[in-house]
Specification:
Blueprint (H helix, E strand, L loop, with lengths): L7 H11 L6 E7 L2 E7 L7 E2 L3 H15 L25 H5 L14 H11 L8 H8 L13 H15 L3 H10 L40 H4 L2 E2 L1 H12 L13 E2 L5 E3 L4 E5 L2 E9 L4 E7 L4 E7 L6 H12 L2
Antiparallel strand pairs: 1-2, 1-10, 3-4, 5-6, 6-7, 7-8, 8-9, 9-10
Length: 325
């Protein structure tokens, strides 16, 4: 159970903000160290896919492992993973963490177009590889020029490289370094549908069609984490009070989309109405999510919807209203 009581006014407010496109959602807000949560159309303890917010979690674990001196930013993927002498093996962890490694979004041998069509037509999970399959795919890619380029493949490899440096699997790394210390009992990484918890929701497209869960050992560091809104609220509080491991991952260190949009280890920081907002979003076949922090104001928001339509603009709006009521 979440241990947090639902805030009906917050649910009603968010329902107005989201509109009819989202009938199953949950929200958490953090202000002054207090976590408030609400849900509509789903139980408060429902288990959502958080999509690419998983990359933010991997960024925290990467920064934490650097702090522990298990790895270093200038190490290469090949020093931690059995990638032989392929091009991906020579890429540094720091460049992957900033999406500037030159790795493609997905390897061509994964047939991303065919998988996307299967997702659209049948609601199928476009991922599902195990670690061995991921490493084989990575061995086939060409590394391009190191400019900012969003890469799911890069973060899949980064998460497993960090775990290897710690002598753990990625699943156990998440549990031992994040879930257990912060008491996030619902935050986990299912490798297959059979691993889903009893509160796991089935996501839907924006047209209401059910989608298969996005599970997979390889996928976990880039998009395979699941959690309840209560635990995402607790994580947000820990990010704001600096008690989360690897908190330096949030600090921007490089331009990502010009000087106004900068990146740390996965986490994006941009200027919005004169304030800095640190954020990440997520999207899977049947879920959308957004987490944002105004670190100067000590406020944060998490939105999770069991529908694939984006919640990004709603998240920015809610954070602005929370910070400037």
């Amino acid at each position: 159970m979440s241990g947090l009581q639902a805030d009906p006014a917050l649910a009603a407010r968010l329902g107005t903000v989201l509109g009819s496109g989202h009938s199953r959602f949950a929200v958490a807000t953090v202000a002054g160290g207090k976590v408030s949560v609400a849900a509509a159309g789903v139980p408060l303890d429902a288990d959502f896919e958080i999509g690419s917010i998983s990359k933010g979690i991997t960024g925290l674990l990467y920064a934490d492992a650097c702090n522990r001196r298990e790895i270093s930013a200038d190490m290469t993927l090949g020093e931690l993973l059995p990638l032989a002498d392929c091009e991906a093996a020579r890429v540094t962890l720091a460049s992957v963490s900033r999406h500037s490694s030159g790795l493609p979004r997905l390897p061509a041998v994964a047939h991303p177009l065919r998988r996307t069509l299967s997702l659209w037509l049948r609601g199928a999970n476009p991922y599902g590889e195990d670690l061995e399959e991921l490493l084989a795919q990575a061995g086939t890619v060409r590394v391009r020029d190191p400019r900012p380029r969003y890469s799911n493949l890069g973060f899949e490899l980064l998460g497993h490289a960090v775990a290897a440096g710690a002598g753990l699997s990625y699943r156990n790394l998440v549990t031992e370094r994040l879930s257990a210390p912060l008491s996030l009992t619902s935050l986990y990484t299912p490798s297959a549908a059979a691993d889903l918890g009893p509160d796991a929701l089935t996501g839907r497209s924006r047209f209401g069609r059910p989608k298969q869960p996005w599970t997979g050992e390889a996928l976990a560091p880039a998009g395979g984490v699941r959690a309840s809104i209560g635990d995402m609220g607790r994580l947000t509080r820990a990010l704001l009070d600096d008690s989360a491991p690897g908190i330096s991952a949030l600090d921007p260190v490089a331009d990502f989309a010009g000087p106004a949009v900068r990146i740390g280890a996965a986490w994006i920081t941009l200027q919005a109405k004169g304030r800095s907002v640190t954020w990440h979003n997520g999207a899977t076949g049947g879920f959308s999510s957004w987490i944002g922090l105004d670190r100067d104001a000590n406020t944060g928001v998490v939105l999770m919807s069991a529908t694939s339509a984006s919640v990004d603009r709603h998240g920015f709006r809610l954070l602005e209203e929370l910070t400037h009521p």
